[in-house]
Amino acid sequence: MAEAAAKRNSLPPKKATTSSTASTPSSTSTTSSTTSAGITPKSVSTASSTTNGARTNSTSSTAKSSTSTSTTTASRQQKEEARRLKSAEDVEFMLKIKDTKYAHKRQTHDNSSLTTETTETTLVGPNDRELHDELKRLHTDYEAMKLRAERAEREKSDILLRRLASMDTASNRTAASEALALQQKVNEMKDQLEKVNEEKRKLNIRMKEIENNPKGGEYELKRKLQAAEQLCEELMEENQDAKKEIINLQAEMDELQDTYLDDEVKAK
Length: 268
Description:
Layout: H1 2-114, H2 117-121, H3 126-165, H4 170-212, H5 218-267
Helix pairs in contact: 1-3, 4-5
């Protein structure tokens, strides 16, 4: 009995241990469930805060990149503006240098044009020599152009004369041919008049010589004098006739010219 009681006494503690052991897993499960239940909201809040932080970081990085881009663009524009201003200043400086050189050359040219040829030949400066050579070249070109203009003027007059001579109307051809013939006749009469005047001058000189030397035979001198006077009278008459004929020919030429102009006006 005592042994049975001892066994019984010994059993309950074993059951209590078992229950305590059983209760330990339950408490462990409860703790684990509680722990799991407590950890889940924290992890969710941490994840959401991490996502928000990432978004904030991305927004700030985007703002920083846009700010850096605008800063880079502004600096680039400033550099381009500075480069443009520098190029404009360089161009203005070059123009000033060219204007100064041109003014200096012009002043040198004016000063050299006032000096004599001897002074110009004794100049040593290269600019003066260049200006002198250029002046000579321009003078040569001017003379060449002048000759070309004169040649062109002569060619123009020849062309006009040919055009007048080659007109189709018979009256114009007749008037032109008659005017040409009369002009040739006038030229011939002028030549004859010059010859007559020359012969008259020689005879007058001969008469003066005879008058100044009366040693010859009086008869011979009188005969020669009479012959000379007669010849002079004949020459004077021929001279008067030639003058009258020239005047008549000139009048005829004027009439033909007027007729030609009237025919030309009518033809137009």
